[in-house]
Amino acid sequence: MVFSSMVFLFVFLPLVLGVYYGVLKNIKSRNIFLLAFSLVFYAWGEPVYILIMLSSIVINYFGGILIDLHRNKSKLILFIGIVCNLSFLFIFKYEGFVVVNLNSIFGLSLESLELPLPIGISFFTFQALSYLVDVYRKSAPVQKNILELGLYISFFPQLVAGPIVRYTTINEQIKQRTTTAEQFNEGVRRFIIGVGKKIVLANNFALIADAFFLAPSREISIIYAWVGAIAYSLQIYYDFSGYSDMAIGLGKMFGFEFLENFNYPYISKTVSEFWRRWHISLGSWFRDYVYFPLGGSRVNKQRMVFNLFVVWFLTGVWHGAAWQFILWGLMYFVLLTFEKLIDISRFLKNKFVSVIYQAFTMVCVIVGWVIFGSPDVKGAIGHIFAMFGGGYIFDAIGLDSIMEKFALAKNPLIDEGLANVNYLLLVIGIVLATPILTSCLNKMKLHTTKTFEFGSSLVYMSVLIVSISYLVIGAHNPFIYFNF
Q1: Where are the alpha helices (DSSP H) in 278-396?
Q2: Domain limits of the chain?
């Protein structure tokens, strides 16, 4: 089940909210109810995988208890807990990749299990691991109520695509929380923003991005390649940040406050800054549980480079069991190592250099997304080659062709004469990926509070209506990060 589906919007969510606020009055019954329906939510697509979720809850519950009870053996217990958690990831996500490559390298004929990937397994596994490590470090209290720990691991708003929530962030909220009318309304508004990002923007950018990745790289023009690459960069941003907005909004509706996961990453001046703004919860997870324990930057240069290599190799692997994800992660390893070794901030004091390097950063990010979104390394190299002169500036599969793939005129909701809105939507997507509009709206709010609130309510309602209209006609709808 996905948030941007008719079943979720008109059946699951109203039912859960109705019972949560209309029937249940104490925190214990509400937690049990949320746990039960979180498990229903997870089991919706593939019921058998509920066993994985239940196993994760049980293993990490007893792991935390044992770590707290046997401090003299806590390191061994933590190690066993980590192995148990990662074994789920290996079996379901990486086993096939390992088997294929072993067969290829050594001429073996091993058979893969070919198990479908459980949705969100990378996200809830990392949440569970952070709980065990925090209990081991004594930075988080052990949870002795298995139902409360189960709610932490399986809570449906952030279950399948983050943000990766730390136990220390919501431990007290699980035990005691209240939801004010303002918090609930803010949650609804945030959820609608996420729905709009996903359905109106990401799904339309997906049309052009899909056409780009499917096109033969030898026939792609420079213009086509860049428009396609930018479209995918916008798609993945609005797709993932839209999900995070929906998750944060849903959390607010139930009285939870999740940390932000995105902060306008495409305005970053350096690659390092980009990763402080993109998927913040994942970056901070690798920083706190991998990079710092390895020594971080407070070691000699050779060790620092090794630490960065480990982090970015694992970041690539976390995203997918395929060579293009590893290549993508190692690309960032090279870029971030370069920035640290030369201390890039020294050079950015010069405005001209700063502008040039910001442009370089965005080119690197866009190229990275081409690697990330390609079906394999060969396809990624071919499409990148096209971006930098491998094809003609215009050709048979040029700008007109790709914009036709993007044409909203083919959508029954929009008249044939409005086809030019495609170009406008592309520009809108770029503008909304910056804080320009937010800054303007905040200034307006200071001077015209009542008018602003009325106008914003109309905008939210319009976004919701347009989004639902897209759902009614069966628009392309899966979330990219569900695959991770």
Answers
A1: 280-286, 292-294, 301-319, 323-342, 351-373, 377-385
A2: 6-177, 184-410
